[in-house]
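Task: sequence in, structure out. Protein: FAD-dependent monooxygenase.
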Amino acid sequence: MSQDDVLVVGAGLAGLVIAGAWAHRGGHATVLDASASVGASSAGGGLQIAPPTVAVLRRLGVDLDAAGAVVVHAQETRASDGRLLGRAPLHACEQRYGTPYVTVRRADVHAALLARVASVADVRPGTAVTSVHETHEPVVTLADGRTLHPGTLVGADGIRSVVRAALGPDRPLYSGLWAHRALVPLAGLPAHLAAPVVRLWVGPGAHVVAYPVAGGRELNLVVVVPGEDDDPTAPAWTAATDPEPLRRRLADWPDDVRAVLDAVEMLRGHAVHDRAPLEHLTSGRVALVGDAAHPMAPFLAQGANQAVEGAVELAAALAAADRPAALTAYERRRASRAGHLQQGSRRSVALLHLPAGPERDARDRAWAAETGLAHRDRLYGYPVATLLGNALASSA
Ligand SMILES: Cc1cc2nc3c(=O)[nH]c(=O)nc-3n(C[C@H](O)[C@H](O)[C@H](O)COP(=O)(O)OP(=O)(O)OC[C@H]3O[C@@H](n4cnc5c(N)ncnc54)[C@H](O)[C@@H]3O)c2cc1C
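Result:
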């Protein structure tokens, strides 16, 4: 089978973007997803989308305005006693990087992307892969017992990737923290919470993030606290969360936090996992992308952004005249960007959750000094969308 015959496992953001990026290069991909309703597993929360990802999605023909994206003006960081610790002027992203910083309901952006990609790739929901053998002549076994022999296999199947298992035996690592999230109608909340601001409150052992999505109709809430798992070595991955214990834990936090928690009936909890950076993201005819390649804790809001960047870069590498050299370059670039963020996400939570003391004072001074966007240039000024050429919308 030809190497141009690309089989993608997973139709999350990474899988859909690589299929769209591959179509840009004149190729055709088949995308399998275990879920009968593609995107359902990622529904229920919001995403912060950085300027490079906005540029990629636009070139793939995704209309973010129609998907209810909110253009963010600022990120405000406050202590759990309400003190303002920092304000990042995200409204300047458009001018500085060419595209804005936006927030969106993840189900909305996923549906918009799926609608675009389904017209240029073969997306097959309800098709679970149970195992992958061999990376030089990969054999993919499906849940119904069929086997496939793709020319090129891309693992975009998330943090619990079956494809990754063919490259090595590593496991997801539990952080000891849970992220509890909910979408809350803004209509019943204090009016200023509808402003296009990403709000972050940090305190000892916990932090809270809130920002508007869905065209400003809903507030995405994420509360990160230590887990109370019966078995901390093997926690459940997700669970429904009663807000009452969170209300008690954060009872002396600012009014805004308490108002949002009071308005929530139920949250969805996710045990936060990542994995150690992998030395090789490719082997033979198999390549990994997105969370399958470099899953990271969500504390820098970069997992999906890196998934999208990596998908565009991997499509370019697969199309290169010297594919092996291009795949090596893909691995190096991902290691330096996503690998760095994997470790940075882990470290950042210790900083966010610091108790009172000299370390926290030093952190607060450092945050107060970060007034512009210059320190974010490496992250937000990454010109990955140029690998896509013209917009798919106009070439389709
Ligand atoms: C609370 C929280 C908040 C976050 N906030 C942000 C944020 O603001 N910004 C950001 O950039 N990132 C954020 N992230 C991270 C982001 O959600 C992930 O990094 C991103 O969704 C990864 O995309 P993916 O396509 O690689 O994987 P996934 O979204 O996990 O998609 C994997 C797909 O593969 C399918 N699949 C899995 N196994 C199989 C199989 N065996 N066979 C077939 N199909 C399979 C699944 O059904 C799924 O559709 C957050 C994460 C959490 C938990």
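The chain has a mean pLDDT of 94.
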